[in-house]
Amino acid sequence: MTNDSSATTPRNQPELERSHLTFPVVGLGASAGGLEALLEFFGATSPTSGMAYVVVLHLSPEHESTADQILQRTTSMPVLQVKERTPIDVDHVYVISPSLHLTMNDGHLNVEPADRPRERQVAVDLFFRDMADVHRERAFGVILSGTGSDGALGLERIKEQGGIAIAQDPQEALFDGMPRAAVDTGAVDFVLPVASIPAKIASIWSTAESIEMPRTEDGPTNVHPARSFERAEAAEIALREILLLLRHRTGNDFKHYKRGTILRRIERRMQVNGLTDMPGYRDFLQASPDEAGALLKDMLIGVTNFFRDFESFAALDNEVVWRLTGASAEGGDGALRVWSAGCSSGEEAYSLAMLLSDALDATQGMGTVQVFATDIDERAIATARSGIYPESILVDVSNDRLNRYFTKHQNHFRVKKELRDKVLFAVHNILRDPPFSRLHLISCRNLLIYLDRDAQRDILQTFHFALMPGGYLFLGGSESAEAVDELFVTVDKKHRIYRAKPVASSVRAPISDAAPSAYPRLPQVASEISLASSRKVMYAEVHRRVLEQYAPPSVIVNHNSDIVHMSDQAGRFLRYVGGEPSHNLLSLVHPELRLELRTALFQAVQSNKSVEARRVRLQRNDRNYYVNMVAKPFRDHQADADFVLVLFDEVEESMSQESGTSVEGKDSVLTQLENELQRLKDQLQDTIEHSETSTEELKASNEELQAINEELRSATEELETSKEELQSINEELITVNFELKTKVEETAKINDDLQNLISSSEIATVFVDRAMRVKWYTPRAADLFNLISSDAGRSLMDITHRLDYPTLAEDAAETFTSLRMIENEVPSTDGAWFLARLVPYRTAEDRIEGAVLTFIDITQRKRAEERLRAGQERMRLVADSTTDYAIITMDEEGVITGWNRGAELIFGYRASEVEGQSGAIIFTPEDREQGVPAAELQRARKFGHASDDRWHIRKDGSRFYCSGVVHPMVDGNLLGYAKIARDLTDRKMQENAQDAALERTSATNELKDLFFAVMSHELRHPLNLIQLNVDILSRTPGMVTSAVGRKAVETVRRSVRNQSKIIDDLLDMSRVSTGKLKLNRGRLNLVQVVQGCIETVSAQASAGSVQLKVNLAQDPVIVDADATRSEQVVWNLLSNAVKFTPEGGTVTVTLVTDNGNARLDVTDTGIGMAPEAVDAVFDMFNQIDRQHSNRNKSGLGIGLALARQLAEAHGGSVTALSEGEGRGSTFTFLLPLADGGNSAEQAVDAPVSHGQLRGARILLVDDSPDVLETMGMLLELEGATVTSAASGAAALTVAVGQSFDLIISDIAMPEMDGMQLIKKLREMPPLADVPAVALTGYGGTAIINSVRAAGFSDYLCKPVPMDQLIEKVSNVLPVRDGER
């Protein structure tokens, strides 16, 4: 029947664990010619495919394998030969080792010693089975070139568990045995050339990862559910239509199958066909007539192999089979009737027959075995009837059973006739067709788990009906009979063996298959089934019993007159005779009836009509009977066979004496004819008996011929075994030959490399034997020894040479005796020098068979050494003549060994005074105490040099500043140290003077920074008072309604802002000049910055009757810049342009992108500049002549200078252009565009609403009474309750016992500043978490960081506009209950 992989633990091997790996595992099986195919496969495989690959080959156990090394040359993935437990990693290749059996469990590969004989190669099948059961739907099985059929059963298991089976095209394979055997199973999904297989695997896996399937409750799926309700509904509709199409085209209805089983089988077909959703597969199924058959094959994959789950079969043998056969041995001679339901291709049915036959033979029982094997799959039944199985079944069947029940034919096994005759196969639908009856055992394994519970219960009731009382039921490991526990009792719960209870069983109506759809099932059908199952009266059985009692006795025979069935009362006309038991009716019928019956049967068969035999008189128990026999031929279409029905009609003789008298008066002629007929019958009987005797003799002869045939068959089997051994050895030889061929090619390549190496090195080499005879030499050696090709075998001493080497023979002899290398530098007659090296020639067996003489040209080295010696002498003279530098050499212990003239002049010691003393003599006493000399040498050894500038001491005790460096002198080993030193006392004095000047400059800068900070505070304080009072004025009713008042207020505010800007520019200029300016860069939309600055100067432009023309880019212009500094630059340019443009003039602002830059052009029609004054306009405190302007243009002359420096700090620029005085100017601001699109960081300002501080309790601290009064009034106007304090101490006093919502404090206050105050306030528990805002007249990042570190929540720089203050306060204030 069907199969699926819903169980989480493999049923056939419970010790296996499901794999945790999330990537596919590709198993590749190959044999002869497989290495070439594997090389092509991995050559076409991506090294980052996201899969793992396991290669299983038939390798000779007597040889080491280099398959992993060969494959490694083709792929960049790591190739490992598995010799121990190994975890499986993605993008790795694993190769089986010789003489080891490869298995898979969880996510690991394991190895075991191979215990199979060489002629039985099943390594691929064994591994494929493990991979299928462990890796399930993520398993890919690939069969490549090879002989035999190994891997065929493994592919079936892979497909059964939801994996993909692929075979190499047999026409392409070097040996097509394995690929063709795989294809013949019908389990292969794709037959492809090797080069196309990797791409197909990648495509299938890619499809599998994107498949959408409906949800299921009875088992997990490995795909994504539908992403929306509409897609899920469409998938459900498509599923119903797919099942209807399958039922319409194949006649098989799967409505009683579990939903998960159906979905997993459809999912697999979607993977194979590259489809990702159910509607798409529905359309494909409608358009492809052959796809319905392929889907049916997937639905009906057989869960079977011989003795699958061996432990369960062993339990069945112990618990059931021996009981059944034991009962037969105690006297029963009937057939043991067994039904294998869902037998698939017959392995389980034959397994049961073998178990029963073995048990009968062991108990010497007289019974027979009759196994009924049924399945819905006609293809599987045809395979089972043929009884032919691949040779890989030897994995499951013992050698004894193979020899007893199977015959070997080439690459497969055939079931022997004696076992085949015990099994009857038939196509049967267990859900629809009637069952068998009077059974001793039913085996139905791994079928019920794929059906719904109603169907399971009906089938179990059917099994109980079919079993005899006390009969046995054998189920699969994941099945149970608990649903009908009233009908069965458990025999072995672990192995699912049950026994039928002797209770009445209801008649089961076949499950209807007329429902038009699978989902949902119709309720009326269920009710009909329920009613039918509740009926208790079996009318068919009543009818049969009546016919048996009152109808004439009858027998059904085939065309050979063998009895196939007989009625209960027909036995009185039959009798058993001595000899071999027979089922032939003519042999068993009463002898007096035999002649007439034989004639009637012959005539009936020939004429195909009913024939009535002549009445025969028969005497029994002293009474006379007349028997009439009728032979009626007929054909049964279901059995597809012809039969003959024989009816016996018996009448007892009951005539009186009067009738006897009348009989005697019969015609004498009739009596005479009857007597003659009787005589002829007797003669015919004699003839028949003679014929039967001849037949017995022929049978005996036939038995002798059969014995001879068995002997011939045995010899043939031995020849087949020998042939298989030779074939296996041939496969191994092919693999070994390929590896040897590879090694030969490698050797040839190495030889070529060696030849090229020798030629390129131009080293003269001569190989000689122990007698100094030449064996081989390089071309360069011919230049030294005058060798020619015919000199091989001659003594090297007999050949002239150009070397001045009189001891050549003695050195060679020394090499042979001492077995060590000898080197000498020898000259030649032409002035060249050679390094002669003589080395013993060792063989692989460690024997000395000669010597290798190499002569390396060292002429250039010799000349270089001469030049080096001359150079060293010159260096010594240079060192001695150098007086500005002290050159000191020391040994490895730091003892002075050399002291040049410069050292004498610098340190005051003569060479004779210091040589032999420690180098520490030149260091000061303090340095010597601290170990400075030794540390200097240690650093030189560690880092290769040690430089140091420090004070040293002369001979006279005076100190001087010396710069020195120490280098180790290394020639393989440490030889000593060299120190070079120079007197830098004068330069040190200059540096000290410069450092002092730098410190004074730094102090001056700090004073200047302090001055600017104080100046900033003092300037901002009055501006702050002005700002606050203007804010109060702007809120008075008179000012709100007065246009003149509003204009005056706005004028004052603008003046405050301008003065604040001037202060900011002054401080920034100070920071730029001292290098303290820091930029807070970020993605900035320059369009928004320019728009904001335009809004700021628009009032100034309107006041001066200057027209602003704006031409900005439509799209965002994104730069990586500091928002505040960028705004400063733009504001300075715009303010400067408006300032120097007369009334009625125009300022044009243009922002565009230009060659990767943002370009801002500010063009005015103002006073312009002379060309020579353009550069000077950016000088600090420099202003152009204002005489041409009719308005006062106040300023310090730092705005443009600051703008240029800020732009350059961003990597941009600010330039000016003017055609002359009175002709206007153009200032251009360039900034590099930022990478990464047009998005910018934007700050969202919270809207400010009046009265937002209503109910807020605020502590206000400032040392200025004016600020306290003014700011307090403003805060109270916004609804706040303000408590004021004029100093830090006063604030601490009023804070005791009170609670506040907010603290606002000035920073610069006498005695206790704001930061000291906030720290003390934070120590008070009620004020520990109250938000606090600092008011400061100082600027700069350092001040801001200090403010936050002290405990303030935020800060504001003076002057403080009231709107900003309210906004800041609103941001830091917590949400009050009344505002929720």
How would you summarize the topology of this molecule?
Layout: E1 25-30, H1 34-43, E2 52-57, H2 67-72, E3 79-81, E4 86-87, E5 93-95, E6 100-105, E7 108-113, H3 123-135, E8 139-143, H4 152-160, E9 164-168, H5 177-184, E10 190-192, H6 197-208, E11 212-213, E12 224-225, H7 229-250, H8 259-273, H9 278-287, H10 289-299, H11 310-329, E13 335-341, H12 347-363, E14 368-375, H13 378-386, E15 388-390, H14 399-405, E16 406-409, E17 412-415, H15 417-420, E18 423-427, E19 439-444, H16 453-466, E20 467-475, E21 488-492, E22 497-500, H17 523-533, H18 539-550, E23 554-557, E24 563-566, H19 585-588, H20 591-607, E25 611-612, E26 616-620, E27 623-636, E28 641-652, H21 657-664, H22 668-761, E29 764-768, E30 774-777, H23 779-785, H24 808-818, E31 822-827, E32 833-842, E33 848-857, H25 859-881, E34 885-890, E35 896-899, H26 901-907, H27 911-914, H28 925-929, H29 932-943, E36 946-953, E37 959-971, E38 973-983, H30 985-1035, H31 1037-1041, H32 1043-1074, E39 1081-1085, H33 1086-1103, E40 1107-1112, E41 1118-1122, H34 1123-1139, E42 1146-1154, E43 1157-1164, H35 1199-1209, E44 1213-1217, E45 1225-1232, ...
Parallel strand pairs: 1-2, 1-8, 2-5, 3-5, 8-9, 9-10, 11-12, 13-14, 13-19, 14-18, 19-20, 40-42, 46-47, 46-48, 48-49, 49-50
Antiparallel strand pairs: 4-7, 6-7, 15-17, 16-17, 20-22, 21-22, 23-24, 23-28, 25-27, 26-27, 27-28, 29-30, 29-33, 31-32, 32-33, 34-35, 34-38, 36-37, 37-38, 39-41, 42-43, 43-45, 44-45
Helix pairs in contact: 3-4, 6-8, 7-9, 7-10, 8-10, 9-10, 11-12, 30-32, 30-36, 32-35, 33-34, 34-35, 37-38
